[in-house]
Structure formats: structure tokens, C-alpha cells
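Forwarding the complex inputs:
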Amino acid sequence: MRKLLLAAALAALCPLTGFAQSTGDLLKGAQNDTSNVLNYGMGYNLQRFSPLTDINRDTVKRLVPVWNYSYDDNKSEESQPIVYQGVLYVTTNAATMALDAKTGQQIWKSKIEYPDETPRIVCCGIINRGVAMYEGKLFRTTLDANVIALDAKTGKELWRSHAIDFKDGYSMTVAPLVADGVVITGISGAEYGIRGFIDGWDPETGKHLWRTYTVAGPDDPNGKTWPGDTYKHGGGSTWITGSYDPELHSVFWGTGNTGSWNPTSHPGDNLYTCSVLALDPKTGQIKWHFQFSPNDPYDYDSVAEMVLADLTIGGKPTKVLMDANRNGYFYVIDRTTGKLITANPYVDKITWAKGIDPESGRPIPSEVTDKVRKGEAQEVWPSALGGKNWSPVSFNPGTGLVYANTLNMGMQYKPVTPEFRAGLTYWGAEIGWAMPDGPRGFLKAIDPMTGKSKWENPSDIPRFSGVMSTAGGLVFAGKLTGEFEAFDADTGKKLWQFKTGSGVEGQPVTWRQDGVQYIAVSSGIGGVYNMFSGDDRLAKVPAGGSLWVFALMPQ
Amino acid sequence: MKVLTCLIAGTLFCAGLSIAHAQTGEEPAPSPEQFAKGANLFAHTCSHCHGPEMVNPGNFSFDLRKFPHDGRERFFNSVRNGKKAMPPWKDILHQDEIEAIWAYVRTGGVAPQ
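Prediction (whole assembly, two chains):
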């Protein structure tokens, strides 16, 4: 009774937004508010860094699971949990769940249904990457391209907005971004001949506010970079959540590969595919664009996270955007102007380009790419999975290093004439793998200005998890064979691991509640590498999604 | 292995071979054209879940290298109507296309000579 009165009194005192997750709360990020994890990427800057130090190099040996929660789902589990006031919100392709963050007790579970046909147009894992939270509501996407809002207290659906017809190849897995009071979502399907876009929605009603196409049409001067009607199936998906700089009032969102992959089917730069866009969150208007891979043949999709940081460059503090691009180069871009600062290889083998022109920012094509553009088959490195795939990196402002799960794979690539049929793939290329004998992946500690690694930790079967770093001198990552691991951030030495029951493809997060630091990560195999690489060694890793939460065992 | 058994059986009971096929439900080898069409369709519509050339760990989808080569009816039923996380294809793939993919799967992805 006392509690109730107190709550009522507080509610009367505080304006409503003080309780709910206001824009102010979202601005803090996990770096300034260690008791919650309110943003995808643990902050608008997507740094995935926590200042918490309870779990550190010395104590990590006492890290033990405190609870495990079954998703009752046997797909890839790539969702990033959101934590607010002791409640953890997480998704699968088939449900949204609220759990007591301390005990793992389910508070509610809200199921998602979609037509059985939907997974036909989902190339790379039947997944969902999580919710966004704002003013008492949760926002998520569905595989069949709807954006929905749920009441965070009850899980009740409040609104549902249909983005586009999945039968034309469109699907949604992205975790929305709420920036300046607008719910922003991307789209998947560049392998199915979609025309990509980014949408803005009203959080209150679900009303569609704006749509910005990532494939320029005739109404855009950059539409000239697409011959004829090719823009209609030009690809440019947007399936990873953007970052946001409130000072510049810009959202930075990466865009995917062209449709079809065959560059001869749409000669030109093909703007804005394989690019990063700086958008006004209120209107969706493009402030600037930077294209990583013009007329890309190789699926060097550039959706993966655009990490924001303030680096000292030439003695000057500079607002930058960092991207370990699929094309094998690590880019540092001035995020105020969109101008390239530097781009260097962060993987050992790149054969498609000779380098990045420092003035124009354009790649200098190699002979391999010249031949491919003439329609010839070639061996190409990195493979279509990239130097790094979607697995998000972590930037530790203390060490100045970017920790990334990188890939070491090539491919046999053959352009073929694409044929468009709605709801089927529109690849325009045949690919086989060119696998190295040894490790197919490395967790690397990358210097963003040089692309060089301070240390590397190899893995025969490459890691596909998200990475998180902490001020405790630790880097967390997971393996497809199930190990969730902690590394020394300075040396790369493995300090700890715990074997989960399936492969780890999730995105670790950490928070502190009632004096205890917790770490959560999803386990559950079934993503792109598992399905598409033909790696038989994974036959010994069973499917089965669940969430693991860890804390230090008392001394 | 199956091919080998068949060959040996063939030399022994040459005359009875086609009858044996009918009884076990095994079908004659597809034409090279049909096989190639099936391989191409497989690469474009099935390989992202079932692996390139059917090589996949079998922990998410079905390891089609292990699909019974005399399981025509089951194959058509599952592909047309779907099964659990396996999507249905009957509204989008034509009968002759499923037939070609079946030719590819039931020969274990080994092109006919």
C-alpha cells in the first residue's frame, strides 16, 4: 500500500515523459546510464561500449550464468536485448518478450504471425534484431514487412503499419531507431530485386511520415546513375539500424548491394547502393551520401553499422563515422561533411580493388574487377560475405581500438544474365567458395586510422556474433560452435569462456542493477554462414534459441 | 553407392531392371537438360537455406544429400505445401520446375553422363 501511494505521488510530481523513455533517456546511451540499455548498439553512436568495471580482467574468472530463458524457437537468434528499469525486452522472428532482468521470469510474451510463404524471400536467416523503446512503447518489425508498436507493460499491440508487400521480395528484420521522436526502419530484400528505402513513422499512431529511396529514381538527379528502368529492382536494402548524432541532427544509415549483382545489367554508379546516407530524421531528406562501392558486383552490401566517435586527427578533435566495410576497407569519414578521411584494408586479402583513392573516395578497380565488368568469371576476395558481415563491432574510446569479427574467405564469382520474377532471387551471379586452409575468421583489434590490428584471435569457423567492450579491459564475442568468450582488450588473450547449447550469433549487452553487473547474450544458430557456407563441421551444433545472462559469483 | 548397386544388379538381372525400378519407386536418370535446369533452380531458390550444392550442416534445414532418392511423393508434397519452417512453393514454382529440382536432388546432385 505504501509503495502504491509513493508511486502515485511520484507520478503526480513527474511529467509523464520523466517515467517513460524520453528522447533525453535515449540520448544518454549505456555509456552515461549504466542501469539501462535503451539503444540498439548501446548508444546512438553504436559503440557497444560500457564504462562498467565490476566484471574486469581479474574478476571475469568468476563470471557464471545466473539464468537462461528458452525462446522456444530454433532459428538464428540475433536480437539485441533492451533493458529498462529491470525489465529486459527481446525478440525472435516469432515473438516479443518481456522478462524480469534479474530472475529471467517471463512477464509477457506476444506472438508474431506471418504467412508461411514469407521465408522464401528471406535470404540470410529467419531472424529479428530487436525492439526500440520510446515513451512506454516498443517498436519492432515483422518478417512480412510490418512495423508494429506494443505496450511495454502488457505486450498488447497498439498499432501495425504495413510497409510493403512481401510477395515482391521485401522483408523486415531490422531493429527500429527512434531519433528526434520519429520511428525509423529499413528494409531487406536486395537479393530479390527490391527497390530499397528507409521509412519514418509517427510513434504515437504509426502514421507513415516519409520514405527515402536508397535507389535514386527519375525524380532525383542521381537517378541518372541507373539506366532505363533498372532502378525499379536496384536493391539497396537497409537492414541494419543507423546511428544518430543529435548535434548534427543527422541519422547515418548504410545501404545494401545492387540488384542484380551482375554489374553489366545496370552500368553506372547505381546511387545510393553500397553507401552511407546522412538523413534528417524529421523529413528523411538526404544531407550527404558517400558511396563505398560504385556499381558493385560482389554483394559488398554496406548496411553494417556506422559507428560514431570523436577522434583526434592531426591534433584536431573530429566528429567521425567509422565503418569496417564488407569490401575489406576500414573507412573513417568526417560525418559533418561526408568527406573521406582515410580508408585502409583491415583484412589480409583484397583482390577486387587496388586501394581507395584518397581524394574521391572511390575504389581503384583491380584487373579482377575489370574482367568481371566484362562478364568474365573470377576468383574474388573478400567473398560475398565480406571482410566483415553484419556482426556489429565495438569501439572502446579508452583504447581507441575497434574490435571486430572479421572474415577470411574468397569466392568464385561468375556474372550471369539475371531474370526478374517477383518473389524469387534476382542474383545475376553464380558463386562458389574459395576457402583458406586455416582460420576463416579473426576477432581483430583494429586501429581505425590505419586498418592494422593490434592483435588478432583466429577461429577456424568464423565468429558471427556482435562484439562488446567494457572499461573493465574486456572484449566479449561468441562462436558459432556455442562458446561465449571474454578477451583481454589490450592483448587479445582469451580469459574466459562459457559453452552455450547452440551457436552464438547474438549481440551482447551489459548493465548494472542493484549493485550487480549483468551481461546478456542470445544463443541460437541458423544465420547466413550456417545456411550458405556449406560448412559441414557445424552439423555438431544443434539449433535451439535461448537467452543467457551472466554475473559474477560472490567471492 | 546406390549407383554401384544398381550397376551390379543390372549386369545380373538385366532384363528385370526396369520392373525393379517401378517396384522400388526409383526413376530413370534425368536428361542432362533437366538436371541442369534443376541445378540452376536449386542454386537460385533453395541453396540459401539448403546450402550450395546441397552441402549444409542440417541443423537448420534438411540435409538434402540425405533425402531418400525414391521419395518422390514426399518431396513434391513438402516442396509444394511446405513443412514447418520450410516454405510452400506451389503458388510460385511451376510443376516442371519442381520436377527439375527433384531430378537434381534424387541424383544427389551428380550430373547424368
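Chain B touches chain A through 25 residues (CB under 8 Å).
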